Amino acid sequence: MPIIVNLDVMMARRKISAGELAERVGITPANLSILKNNKARAVRFSTLEALCRELSCQPADLLEYREEE
After folding, report:
1. Whole-model pTM above 0.85?
2. Does residue 69 have a pLDDT over 80?
3. CA 41 from chain center: how many Å?
C-alpha cells in the first residue's frame, strides 16, 4: 500500500503508550493497533484530528506516501 502510517514513530517520539493514546483519542486499543501496523483501509478525519491533537503533530507527521515499485 503506498500510504504508510508512521503512528508508531510519533508515539515513540512523544513517549506515549498505545493504551494511553487509545484512551485519550477515544478509540479501542485494537483499532489503534490496526492503524499503527498499517493494516487500516481508512481513517476518519475525526480520528486523525484527535491523534494530531494528542500527539501535537500534523497529519503529514503521521501519513506518508510512497510510490509502489
Report:
1. yes
2. no
3. 13
Give me 58's grid cell: 500534523
Domains of the chain, residue spans: 3-65
For residue 47 the three cell numbers come to 480520528
| Beta strands 3-5 and 63-65, pairing class | antiparallel
Look at residue 10 and give its three-state secondary structure.
helix
Rounded Cα distance, 42 and 35, in Å: 9
3-65 under CATH 3.40.720.10, yes or no: no
Nearest by Cα to 4 from 45, 37, 31: 37
